[in-house]
Amino acid sequence: MSLFLAALRLQLRLAPRSPGTLQVWATAPLFTAVFLSIAEHAHRTDLASFSVVAPTLMGQWALTLGIAGEIIAEERNQGTLEAVIATPGRFSVVVVARILAVSLLGVTTMAEAWLVAGLGFGRWIDVPHPVVLAAALLANAAAMAGTASILSSLFVLMPSARIVQNTLTYPLYLLSGVLVPLSALPAWAGAVGRAVFLSWSADLLRAALDGPAVPRPVTRIAVVALLGLSGYLIGALLLSRVLRRVRRLGTLTHT
Amino acid sequence: MVSTEEYGTARRGASERPADPAAADAIVVEDVGRTFAVRRGRAAGEVTALSGVSLRVARGEVHGLLGPNGAGKTTLCRILTTTLEPTTGSARVLGLDVTRQSRAVRRSIGLVFGGDRGLYGRLSARENLWFWCAMYGLRRSALRARTELLLDRVGLLDRADARVDTFSRGMKQRLHLARGLVGDPRVLILDEPTMGMDPVAALDFRALVAELRAEGRTVLLTTHDMAEAAAVCDRVSLIDRGRLLMTEDTDAVGRLLSGYERVVAHGVSAGLARRVGALTGVVAVRHEADRLEAETERPSATARVLGVLAAAGVHQVSTARPDLAEVYLHLVGRRGMGVT
Amino acid sequence: MYPTAFHLVRYGFLNAVADFKATYTWRSWSFGWLGRMLAQVLFFTGLGRVLDQPGAVRYLALGNALMTCVVDTMAVVATTSGERRAGTLSLLVASPADLMWVFAGRSLHWPLSGFATASAALFGLGPLFGVTWSAAQVAPVLLLIALTALGTYCVGLFLAVLVLNAPRLRNVVSNCAYLAMMAFCGVQVPVEFWPRGVGAAVQAVPLTHTLRALRAVSDGRPAAEVFGPVGAAVLTAGCWLLAAGVTLRWLVAVPARRAGTLDLSY
After folding, report:
1. What is the SS3 assignment for A113?
2. Does position C144 have pLDDT exceeding 70, yes or no?
3. Is C218 helix (H, G, I), strand (E, B) or coil?
4. Residue A252 has pLDDT above 80, yes or no
5. Which range, A113-127, B260-274, C141-155, is most confident?
6. Where's the ABC-2 type transporter transmembrane domain (chain A) (predicted)?
7. 8 Å CB contact of C15 and B78
8. Splitting chain B (340 residues) into consecutive groups of 10 residues, what average pLDDT does each group show?
9. From the CA of C212, how many Å to the nearest CA of chain B?
10. In the prediction, which pLDDT does B122 show?
């Protein structure tokens, strides 16, 4: 646990200074303005929650994807990968903790989006279900970290992973109902989207900001957490393969 | 090897240059100083990279600029290649002022630096040279002909279409040199060109510099490798902490220290070492175990040392002139390489 | 002989093509990049489907399809900044070439890629959302895409020059720039939706005008409603290119040589 917290703290210190974080903070208000303007122009004030949830999830995921892509490459470039592996701690714990730090930091984009809606458009969005919102944000951050840990290993194992990374933004947002609920997608796409934790988080977050009571909040949060946990387990498995490769070959040959 | 006359178009280009043909020196640096603004926490300060540097390099000379990392060598190169303006003083290349006539200077110089950077890694060697030839105003057949000549010259013809990413350090360095030659420059600035090269590649490089000299090009070469400077340079300048300590013929630098000579002997007792140290003309003595190293300031003193050693029955004796390394260490002090 | 502007652009472009070929294969561009860009169009247009507003889907589809070429083209900021990372920037400065023209050629693959992306989006995805084209409309649409790509390229070159000395900001600046265009230039909602000041400011952006022209073509409005915006787009693009050249020479290169921020070996 202390290893987990130490890694988390380290990354929380590093992240605010990285250009990736700066980019997400700078773009989240613009995304919010884009979504809100579409809703406002159509006089659909009821869609304001869409305009806050989507930039939050997109910003968080962009940050998480960024760190997952560089975390192992960075250790390797610095020549610290071997040193980290040689320590008794579980490397997968370090990886997931560092990614979690970044995805938690990404929650701040929700505050940005909320402020943009209020200050820019005069829509001060209520938070009728703060407890559900907080729990959903936490579960979502954890699920993002778990899922992204798969990618951190994948990027090392697959030479062409950078191209895969491209397809993990908009196609994923589209398929997992980040902006528009899955119910608006064709049935087959909706079925695929249900397997992605993001679709559950997006629905939950929107529900927590809308008026009526949130149905089955505990179950839905549990689904997010479970999907995230399975991501972590797959990630840990892949990571052990990467580390075996380091030990066997003395280096990671793929870039 | 390719003679300069084969670079047809560039010769025509040369006649258009407004360079001063009467300038006897290819490079003239007069009292150049350069400071950089730095920020340490909240305090803003200044670091002096160069201070009062004056230097002349004759046409056709291979001049070594020798000094540890951070001495100011690269700063001087940047000023001469017009990528940095001097804070004080002035510099001219082929009679052209580097600040006021920078574009004409760029036409007349070639720049090569060591390390992995400065090439387009995703392009092939040939594509890199095409691009750079175009940057120097070559066109069509002249561009292609120059590219092939240079590839041939640096021995990269058989790998010309491979991506530069896949090249070894030595190959990249040869490509760097070819790149520096695309404009058929009369003056070449080589900034640490052998950095990271393996010894064989470094030897090849020396042969190339000799060719450049034979073609009448002026070369300013920075290095912290004394052996390299001694092997290829006509004259060397020693630079340290932004100041030019001295400029001498490569041989003369050696003479400077030892009219100075050095005698090394084995099987010498401590008492005998003390006697040697007391002789006139002996300036330094080191004695470890039974090994003696004595430095003398003139040949007569060397003869006296040899006489005393022979009389004491010591036969394992050798004399040597110091190499540049020793001159360097004497002048810069024993601060060690790469430490500033 | 000093290299001419045409010559520099041409060889810069050859460099760009080689660079592009090394980054993408035909397959990775189509399935990786193009797929992602089309998904982006679907993503934003999808919001139109839940709006229940007539014409909203069509409006969003047209705007976001043309927008893809802006996203592509903005990569010029990163590519130009890459010259510093590759260590070639100082070599270019030390050469007799005019840096502005080298830069102008060096990233031309991005507007080309953008042209292809937006064409695929407008002609491939458009019909799914009611954006259909007659044979006579194809040529003007292609020309408008090309004009958008090149006009945005001029904006991008200006931004690229601006961040030449602050390479850490390259992605922030290019992303914010295209998102600002996406928000305010009439891509998602008409320019008139925004406050007057914003509406005035976006008149400086070529995309605002090409998009207006494209919508006019799509609606089959009279030619004057197309040519007016086209003229404005050409004019604003020229201004951005000029601004890039002036900024590079007097506000970036000269101060950089004074301050010593053009490094040789790293």
Report:
1. helix
2. yes
3. helix
4. no
5. C141-155
6. 22-208
7. no
8. 36 43 81 85 80 93 88 90 90 92 89 83 91 89 93 92 88 89 92 80 84 93 81 88 84 62 87 89 84 82 88 85 63 45
9. 39
10. 85
Domain region containing C34: 5-259
Strands B187-191 vs B218-223: parallel, antiparallel or unpaired = parallel
Best B113, B135, B165 residue to mutate vs chain C (most C CBs within 10 Å): B135
The Cα–Cα gap between B170 and B197 comes to: 6
Residues 46-85, chain C: which have Cβ within 8 Å of A? 46-53, 56, 60
Closest-CA residue of chain B to C259: B36
The pairing of beta strand B43-58 with beta strand B62-66:
unpaired
Predicted confidence at residue C255, as pLDDT, reads 78
- Smallest CA-to-CA distance from C39 within C69, C68, C63, C74 is with C68
Q: What's the average model confidence in pLDDT over C87-104?
A: 89
Of C3, C15, C258, the CB nearest to B123: C15
* Interface contact flag, B123 C22, Cβ < 8 Å: yes
Average pLDDT over residues C87-100: 88
Judging contact as 3 or more Cβ pairs under 8 Å, the answer for A and C is yes
DSSP B26-86: EEEEEEEEEEEEEEETTEEEEEEEEEEEEEEEETT-EEEEE--TTSSHHHHHHHHTTSS--
Residue of B nearest to C18 (CA): B123
A131 band by pLDDT with thresholds 50, 70 and 90? very high
Residues 6 or more apart from A127 whose CB is under 8 A from it? A133, A208, A209
The alpha-carbon gap from C123 to the nearest alpha carbon of chain A, in Å, equals: 20
Mutation target for A interface from C172, C173, C193: give the one with most A CBs within 10 A.
Answer: C172
Task: Give the pLDDT confidence of A25-50 residue by residue, as tens digits.
Answer: 999 999 999 999 999 999 988 888 88
Q: Once rounded to an integer, what is the mean pLDDT over residues C87-102?
A: 89
Amino acid identity, position A83: A
> Could you list the residue range(s) of the whole structural domain that residue B30 is in?
4-254
| Same-domain check for residues B181 and B237 | yes
Same domain? B128 vs B75:
yes
The verdict on B227 and B294 lying in the same domain is: no
pTM of the model: 0.83
Q: Read off the pLDDT of residues A192-201 as tens digits, 9 standing for 90 and up.
A: 889 899 999 9
Sign of the alpha-carbon torsion through C15, C17, C22, C23: positive
Interchain contact, C94 vs B109, CB within 8 Å: yes
Note whether B191 contacts C2, CB cutoff 8 Å: no
Work out the average pLDDT over C45-64: 91
CATH of the domain at B125: 3.40.50.300
CA atoms within 13 A on the CB side of B128: 32
User: Residue B334: inside a domain, yes or no?
Assistant: no
C19, C24, C90, C91: best to mutate for the B interface, most B CBs within 10 A: C91
Contacting residues of B for C15, CB less than 8 Å apart: 120, 123, 127, 131
Given a cut of 80, is residue A203 above it in pLDDT? yes
User: Which two structure tokens, joined as six digits, stand for C171?
Assistant: 């992605």
Q: What is the DSSP letter of A119?
A: I
How confident is the model at residue A68, as a pLDDT?
86
The answer to whether residue B35 sits within a structural domain is yes
**How many distinct structural domains can be found in chain B?**
2
Distance of alpha carbon B156 from alpha carbon C231, whole angstroms: 50
Secondary structure of residue B137 in the 3-state scheme: coil
In this complex, the chains that touch A, judged by 3 or more CB pairs closer than 8 A, are: C
Please state which of the ranges B189-198, C112-121, C218-227 shows the lowest mean pLDDT.
Answer: B189-198
A23/C51 Cβ within 8 A: no
Does B198 share its domain with B314? Answer: no
CB-nearest to B16 from C1, C3, C8 is C1
| Range C215-222 contact pairs with CB under 8 angstroms and sequence separation of 24 or more | C215/C62, C217/C137, C217/C140, C217/C141, C217/C144, C218/C62, C218/C131, C218/C133, C218/C137
What's the confidence (pLDDT) of residue C206? 98
